[in-house]
Amino acid sequence: MYKLSNEISMNLGDTSKKLSLPDKVKKDVMRNKELYLLAIPIILYYLLFHYWPMYGAIIAFKNFSPARGILKSPWVGFEHFENFFSGVYFGRTLRNTLTISITQLIVGFPAPIILALLINELKNKAFARTVQTITYMPHFISLVVICGMIKQFTSDTGFITQLLSYVGFRKQTMLNNPRLFVPIYVISDIWQHVGWGSIIYLAALTGIDQELYDAAKIDGAGRWKQTLYVTIPGLLPTITILFILRTGNILSVGAEKIILLYNPSIYDTSDVISSYVYRQGLLHSDWSYSAAVGLFNSVVNFSLVVFTNWLSRKTTDTSLW
Amino acid sequence: MANNKIKPSVGERIFDTVNVIFMIIMIIITLYPMLYVVFASFSNPGKFMMHYGPLWHPLDFTLVSYEAVFKNPNIWNGYRNTLFVVVVGTTINMLLTIIGGYILSRKNWLFKRPLSLGIVFTMYFSGGLIPFYFTVRALKLDNTLWALIIPTAINTYNMIIMRTAFAAVPDSLEESAKLDGASHFTILFKIMVPLVVPTIAVLILYYAVGHWNSWFNAMIFLTRSRSKYPLQLILREILIQGSLTEMTLGAGMDDKEMISETIKYAVIVVSTVPILCLYPFLQKYFIKGIMIGAIKG
User: Fold this and answer.
1) Transmembrane stretches, by residue range (chain A) (predicted)?
2) Residue ranges per domain, chain B?
3) N or C, where is chain B less crowded by C-beta within 10 Å?
4) In this predicted complex, what is the ipTM?
């Protein structure tokens, strides 16, 4: 019986394979003409602005000059990569990127979870909504304005510097002090995004089955125990997904905020891989070298996402794909 | 059973009080920096220079900083460029996002899977900044406002939100329309689009705010056309690079330095108020968007 059904399914597989692939495609195109037509602009966009740059990344292995173009520029193999790895910038940018990412992961990742849990515990729902509305707001302020505010407030006459001087800090232009860059970067990030980040957890909280709480109450669980045994487990899938994303992105600290905040006197602690690529490539026109640094970064990032995703699927059954 | 309200224990009451206090502190920490900006922008430049520490009200209320800002042609020009990018850019974004979301949500066509894979792959891997830069230059988009529109015409994450919304529409609607002889164009724009209006509203807002706030592409692509600078790039000059020469022209040497501080705050207000004014009305849509995005498609 088992064998028979196996044979049948094999035969079925054969008949459908009788149509060769080009024929199958032709038939499908005829049937879904319009879908293929609609797909053209989409495909064109991805080819032009995503796949063409991927092809263009081969300039990392060449000595590219715009006059000669990608194809005619001479090959140099791994020279640019070797220069990067043996130079002083590799260690520095890698260290700074990791420091910022890991600090953000440790301090910035739990912050919205905690805020969501605390908002959830508020008895007065109107007050809870007010807190939400207000804490979401900074998310929409542009990065340029945020960084302008940071610069003003932490200058030697800024009000934050002033407030800190009351508790014993030295008055200084805080952004000229290399040791203060990471705290300023991370704290301002939390200030701007903690409210917005909490939305997704609050949404997940509303999805937790109310009966679980009722059952826990019957078992005599107080609010703390309910949080520990019902709420947090209910949030875990969301936390896991976001954690995978974050750890996968551990080497991709964006250049934008860095460029707006740093200055040469604090490059030592603030220059990350992406800001280095920008400076070296677009300001100093060292195109192939910076393309190599960027490609290295892309490849590592991609591997990290794939790896963390695989690890998470193995251990927790939660994954991005 | 549920009506038997258990009296909160002492510990719980302490927690509730502390929690409320914590939230009030959160509100203050969030709002105060913004209030400070507003107060400073309305302050007398000279008095503000002499003042240290927190501000609780404008110092000697005056509008001089705003007058200087509104007299500045760069600000107006920046506003105009930004508005163009927001309106045209968002329109193109939405058109492509709707089309892309639709074709990716259709189940019975061969190309769906390879296309999805090819698109999702770009979320995790890119050629990097430099090749991207040269691609845009090769297409002759640099030093035009199109450099801020075409290369970012689709945000893949937003397109996936759109796809999820289309996929949630029951198949029966499409099938019955097909039986009536409707084409995919008709199905998409006459049947599907009206059903996903909330998602479309969310994405319009995401894209528009994104365009309003973006500056990096403008910085790298508009190197030789200052007249095309969007507002954020003008802001960067004023706030980050501290160049206010044109704005303080005409003021005396001492005044120049004094007014340059309060002008910065006035510029922040002028550039941020439009977004924050819309914010209370749009808030529910933004939140909806995050929730849609949270559903794994």
Assistant:
1) 35-52, 98-119, 140-164, 184-206, 227-245, 287-311
2) 10-71+244-294, 73-227
3) N
4) 0.90
In angstroms, the first-to-last Cα distance of chain B is: 40
CATH topology for B73-227? MetI-like fold (1.10.3720)
Per the CB < 8 Å rule, is A59 touching B15?
Answer: no
Distance from CA of B58 to the nearest CA of A (A): 14
Pick from B34, B220, B294: CB nearest A200: B294
Provide the strand spans (E) within chain B: none
Contact flag B240-A32 (C-beta cutoff 8 Å): no
Element (H, E) at A225: helix A223-226
Residue environment code for B56-65, b if the CB has 16+ CB neighbours within 10 A, otherwise e = eebbeebebb
Give the one of A119, A142, A294 whose C-beta lies nearest to B232's C-beta: A142
Residue with structure tokens 């919205």? A112
**Residue B184 Cα, gap to closest chain A Cα (Å):** 6
d(CA A214, CA A209): 9
